[in-house]
Amino acid sequence: MAVISRDGKFAFDYPGGRTKDALLEFMNNPVESTAAPPEPKWSDQESGVNHPTDENFGGFVENREHVLVMFYAPRCGHCKNAKREFESAAETLSGHDNQALAAIDCTEFSDVCTQHGVKGYPTFKYFHNGKESEKYEGGRTAHNFSNFVLSKCVSDKKDELLFMCTYCLLNNFSCYSFTRALAFTHALVCLEARGVLLWHSAHDSPTKIN
Q1: Beta carbons of 161 and 190 less than 8 angstroms apart
Q2: How far apart are the first and last CA of the chain?
Q3: How remote is the C-alpha of 31 from its chain's centroid?
Q4: Are 16 and 25 contacting, i.e. CB atoms less than 8 angstroms apart?
Q5: What's the CA gap between 75 and 132, in Å, rounded?
Q6: Of 33, 177, 55, 60, the residue nearest 109 (C-alpha)
Q7: Using CA atoms, how far apart are residues 63 and 59, in angstroms rounded to an integer?
Q8: pLDDT, tens digit, for every residue of 57-107?
């Protein structure tokens, strides 16, 4: 609904409601609304979070081993609270092509949200090698998000890590020091959470971390 000035030119869009009282109130004081401009779309803001669409979502998850996706609605309060933490986690995971965080606006890209059974916001789902693997129901801090993805990466490398630890044991090296030298320090934390059997040195007996 447009507001026309006395000289017949467009003045501004009518900012009020469509009720009789709202219209009468506006006509008594026809001024343009001073409401704050709408918040820019998340996909237009700079961050490490990816924003695939209905058209390219399938290709996006297929090209990466580990993807945690946040399905959201822009006006959802819980989504807004999780947004900053999700962005921080994405920065932690940046630089690794095989893992990513992504966000889908279900008010704009409803097809992919419907396809994956999204019924509430935010909904988090983990995709492994292009396929939906599980619904994420953990905490919503940056630490929670990034550790979840890292634990999935470590799970893929579990056999390799155990082989390395066995090699260290047989050659009288510290397994912890060796894996640390190979940039797997974060893996030990994730492996601990998954209860993987680790050998700490040639003098230690096999220990299962609970």
Answers
A1: no
A2: 65
A3: 42
A4: yes
A5: 26
A6: 55
A7: 6
A8: 999 999 999 999 999 999 999 999 999 999 999 998 888 778 999 999 999
Spell out the residues 6+ positions from residue 93 whose beta carbon is closer than 8 angstroms to its own: 48, 99, 100, 101, 146, 149, 150
Torsion of CA 93, 131, 62, 121, to 10 degrees: -60
Structure tokens at 107: 């008010």
Question: What own/partner pairs with CB < 8 Å and gap ≥ 24 does 26-35 have?
Answer: 30/3, 32/3
pLDDT in tens, 164-209: 555 555 555 545 444 444 444 444 444 443 343 343 333 344 443 3
Residue with tokens 């009288």: 172
Report phi then psi at 82, rounded to 5: -80, -20
pTM value? 0.62
The domain ranges of the chain are 42-155, 157-208
CA proximity to 161, closest of 203, 194, 128, 205:
194
- The alpha carbon of 190 is separated from its chain's Cα centroid by a whole number of angstroms, namely 19
What's the token pair of residue 41? Answer: 């779309």
Q: Which CATH architecture has domain 42-155?
A: 3-Layer(aba) Sandwich (3.40)
Look at residues 210, 199, 193 and name the one whose alpha carbon lies nearest to residue 152: 193
By residue count, the chain amounts to 210
- The CA distance from 48 to 50, in Å, is 6
